[in-house]
Design goal:
Blueprint: H1 4-25, E1 29-34, E2 39-44, E3 49-54, H2 64-94
Antiparallel strand pairs: 1-2, 2-3
C-alpha cells in the first residue's frame, strides 16, 4: 500500500538536499580552453563565468576577431563541463530519495 506520509517525508528530504546541492554548485569549478591553451575560461557549477585568462601573444589589434572566437569557444567548453558536473552532483546527492521515474531528469532542475 502506498504510504503518503513516507512519500511526503522523502519529498521534504529531497527539497532540503536540492537546496544544499545548489549552494554547493557555486564552489565547483569547470575549465575550458581553446587555441591550444592560449585562452582559458573558468566557470562555476552555477554556470557563472569566474575568469578568463588570455595569452599576451593574442593582444594585437589585428587578432581581435580570432581572440573573440577563442574566448567564446573556451567559455562554451567550460560551460559544458560545468553542466556535466552539476548534473553529476544532483544525481549523487539525490540518489534514492525519489523513485526512478522514466523521463524525469533531476539535473534539469539546476538551470
Amino acid at each position: 500500500m502506498f504510504d503518503m506520509m513516507k512519500m511526503m517525508g522523502k519529498v521534504k528530504e529531497f527539497q532540503t538536499r536540492m537546496k544544499e546541492v545548489q549552494e554547493g554548485l557555486g564552489k565547483l569549478k569547470a575549465y575550458g580552453e581553446s587555441g591550444a591553451g592560449m585562452v582559458k575560461a573558468t566557470v562555476n557549477g552555477k554556470k557563472q563565468l569566474i575568469s578568463v585568462d588570455i595569452d599576451p601573444a593574442l593582444m594585437k589589434a589585428e587578432d581581435k576577431m580570432i581572440l573573440q572566437d577563442l574566448v567564446v569557444a573556451a567559455v562554451n567548453k567550460a560551460m559544458e563541463e560545468a553542466d556535466i558536473m552539476a548534473k553529476e552532483e544532483v544525481r549523487k546527492n539525490t540518489e534514492g530519495l525519489l523513485p526512478n521515474i522514466p523521463g524525469m531528469d533531476l539535473g534539469s532542475l539546476m538551470g
